Amino acid sequence: AATKDEGIARAGLAYSRETLIAAVTDTFNSILYLKSLRRAKEKTLAAIKKTRNEAALRLKLGRIAPLDLMEIDTQVASERLDLVRTRETLKRTGQQLCLLLGWSPETGIETRGSLERNGKEEAALVASLTGPSGRGRIKACIGKRPDILRAGKMVEKADESLKIAKGLRLPSVDLVGDYGRHAGSGLDGAEGRWSAGIHVSLNIFNSGLISAEVARARAKRDAAAEALNGLMLKAESQVYAALSSLREAGARIALAGKARMTAGEAYKIETLRYRKGTGTVTDLLKAQAAWWLAKAQYIRALFDRQQAVTALRIATAVTRPAERSAGQQ
Q1: Which of 20, 185, 261, 282 is found 20 to 30 A from 226 (Cα to Cα)?
Q2: 277-300 per-position pLDDT tens digit
Q3: Pseudo-torsion of CA 217, 219, 222, 228, nearest 10°?
Q4: What is the DSSP string of 234-276?
Q5: 131 by DSSP, 3-state: which?
Q6: In this structure, what DSSP letter does residue 108 have?
């Protein structure tokens, strides 16, 4: 029983460790996401500020209406607000990462990396889980998960308890023996005497208590087995959900990448039209908003892909230290 308890504790510790690794990885990816978002917002704000300065000059020359400049100023204020929000969210996420690493939230932390990784290892993992032997591979990976191992050891422990409870019904057999010396018949010597026998005891009058104990042990064993089965099904569904999220994120990256390029060209065209006086400020701002939205969707898709990768690695117990670096400033 002590060995089983130790195995259960070790499996629980391993599960906690992998959960922590996943939390650190997700938080790190969140920082990369927010950094990319911040850079995109800064570029967008710089572009709209440039347009605003040009509009101010055109207003002095009487080539645009004051309302145009007011609309641009409103957009600039909105972009600044979003940028401030993103920067503060990035700071809070950095503090959360420090907390997960056991550092003080006041500790400065520098992170380096990119969400746009080639993903060769992830592609190999997905291929092994979706090929002809994918289902067998999934079940084999799930069987190595610490939480599954812990639940399995709980079943084994319950099996032992059930066997012990059933053993109370069996008779107890003891072999007894004795040896002694006593004076001989003529009082002039000593004789040795051996005695041996078998002692058998059987619980007859407390059979009701034993039956109740067996019933309790069996109920615990059934509950442990049911918990293991439920955990296996949940783990399998987590794998398929992570694979689905990974496919979805890949498709969104491809589509958002194309949309980002198209929106960027449209924004350039509207900017030129506005400078020539053939376009309106409304069209310009709409194009700028579409450009920003396309960039944000692309960055979000990259982040979602990394989240799906982390979820897949946790679900299949294929965790590894991420190829990242994080150090104190």
Answers
A1: 20
A2: 888 888 989 999 999 999 999 999
A3: -90
A4: HHHHHHHHHHHHHHHHHHHHHHHHHHHHHHHHHHHHHHHHHHH
A5: coil
A6: -
